[in-house]
Amino acid sequence: MRFGIFLAPFHRVGDNPTLALGRDLELISWLDNLGYDEAWIGEHHSAGWEIIASPEIFIAAAAERTRHIMLGSGVTSLPYHHPLLVAQRFVQLDHMTRGRVMLGAGPGALVSDAYMMGIRAEDQRRMMDESLDAITRLLACEEPVTMKTDWFELKEARLHLAPYSDPRFQIAVASATTPSGVLAAGKYGLGLLSLGAGLPGGNAKLAEHWRLGEAEAAKHGKTLPRDGWRLVVNMHCAEEDERAFRDVARGERVETLSYFSETLGRPPMRSEDPLGDGLKAGTTLVGSPDTIIRGIERLVEYTEGGCGGVLFRAHEWANREDTLRSYELFARWVMPRFQGSLTMPAQSREWCSENRTGIFGPSMNALRKAFTDAGQEVPDHMRMRLHTGKVDL
To answer: For the chain, which terminal residue's Cβ has fewer other Cβ atoms within 10 angstroms, N or C?
Structure first.
């Protein structure tokens, strides 16, 4: 299983935006050092909190500071851009990162963004589908693309460069509450970013949405790849559950009230205690590594077949030190449980423990003999010997 972050980002109004962008880049570098697999960076143009306007610019800067982590847009709002330019920019990034770029696609999360560009909310999902049609055809590099809609036109269009990745870089479609995202993913055989996994009731709909996507894929002769399915949830990890709750309680409340309620006009997650309700429902995972592990296991059970990855919905609920510590604890104690890297060390330790008398006993004799052969007294601590699994003088 892959792990990473979905970085909107969320920075409260009043915080220095220049420093906030710098922290985001530092975070990506930290995750790269810790062995995280991927980071998805958002695109927003209003409301003051989610301040990255161009994920492509951010990805280019992050790529120069990292070595291994995959970098994707989370997401590129397709109705805001001509599809030829989206394809061209990501092909260029694919070459510049030597295959470390991914394209996340969506209709646009903030209605205020679309409003400023004169795009009607009821048109956004249709426009995303039309753009995906054009982009996937362009990236195939099979023939010039000619098509016309009410908002873009392609005339014998072809890419300047073929993708660096073979046959192309990964593409994933965002899905929150409606089935439009998973239907688009199925129609074009793309990956899926399930933001709904971290929303009230969203985990219970994961398997249902996936079946819808598989049925849509079958209609178009495509396959919906489970290894391309990522679940996005709120997470914070500390050494103990109580410490984790203390870390995030105040920051979560500020974000919920100031941004989602007062700025976007949404009720506080339709609850007076969204953090507590999220913890009970399993859509928010806050606690010790063992608590987080159990939460991920339950979340994956809702998929009825598994998924390819789990992403932090990156937030700043805790202070900087505790936030970075959370990612470190997660990398040390949670990720290995799902990546198969603990099996051989555990087997090796068990083998040595079960055979310690026969394996290490002769070694002690050889060490004592080395002293006597040199005409020296055997040290007192070396006079102890292993006998029937017990230490005797």
So the answer is: C
Q: Provide the pLDDT for residue 362.
A: 83
Three-state secondary-structure class, residue 92: helix
User: Got the DSSP string for 281-306?
Assistant: HTSEEEE-HHHHHHHHHHHHHTTSS-
Give phi and psi for 259, each to the nearest 5: -95, -65
pLDDT in tens, 98-108: 999 999 999 99
> By three-state DSSP, how is residue 326 classified?
helix
Tell whether the model's pLDDT for residue 269 goes beyond 70: no
Three-state DSSP at 194 gives strand
Amino acid sitting at position 6: F
Q: CA 298, CA 227: separation in Å to the nearest integer?
A: 18
What pLDDT does residue 388 have? 43
Residues 75-108: b if buried by 16+ CB within 10 A, e if exposed: bbbbbbbbbbebbbbbbbbbeebeebbbbbbbbb
Report the distance separating Cα 304 and Cα 271, nearest Å.
Answer: 28
Q: Sign of dihedral through CA atoms 222, 226, 227, 231?
A: positive
DSSP, residue by residue, 227-280: GGEEEEEEEEE-SSHHHHHHHHHHHHHHIIIIIIIIIT---STTSS-HHHHHHH
CA distances from 190 to 161, 167, 181, 227, 326 (A): 21, 13, 10, 10, 31
Give φ, ψ of 194 to 5 degrees. -90, 85
